[in-house]
Amino acid sequence: GPEIAWIADNTKKLQLSGSAALTLHTTREFAEEHMDAPVDEIAERLIAAAAGYLGSNVISWQIHRWRYSKPLSFAGVPFVSIGTPVDLLLCGDYMQPPSRVEGAILSGLAAAREILTRC
Q1: Which residue of 4, 46, 111, 116 could cross-link 89, Cys pair, CB 3.0 to 4.6 Å?
Q2: pLDDT above 90 for 30
Q3: How far apart are CA 93 and CA 99, in angstroms?
């Protein structure tokens, strides 16, 4: 929908038993539109949008705002090599999609392979 981009289940990561811990990630459009909105308003809207997925009542919530969490565009390559006095390779989730931990890992692996070919 227009509010939620994806939902992460953190229950196993946090080793919870008997409770669920979910993280709702909003769409870029929702985040930009509501960056300065009151947290109660944001929480109410997101909980309502996710109600069909939650299956129970929300007993607590937190709002975190990451203004620069997603790149507006990507470099289009897995890493960039800068020829300074020493070789410097830049990598990260901003280089190419997906812009999450998977993108950072793929970029780092590509940079590592490049370093190994130079040795």
Answers
A1: 111
A2: yes
A3: 5
Contact 111, 79 (CB under 8 A): yes
Q: How far apart are CA 100 and CA 70, in angstroms?
A: 8
d(CA 91, CA 111): 7
Q: Are 32 and 65 in contact (CB under 8 A)?
A: no
Please, what sign has the CA dihedral across residues 25, 19, 54, 9? Answer: positive
| pLDDT tens digits for range 3-13 | 999 888 887 77
**Using one digit for the tens of pLDDT, what is the confidence trace for 35-73?**
999 999 999 999 999 988 887 788 889 998 887 777 777
Dist. CA 89–CA 109, nearest whole Å: 12
Residue 16, pLDDT score: 66
The C-alpha atoms of residue 21 and residue 11 are separated, in whole angstroms, by 5
The angle formed by the CA atoms of residues 78, 80 and 84, to the nearest 5 degrees, is 160
Residue 24: strand, helix, or coil: strand
CA distance 66 to 53: 24
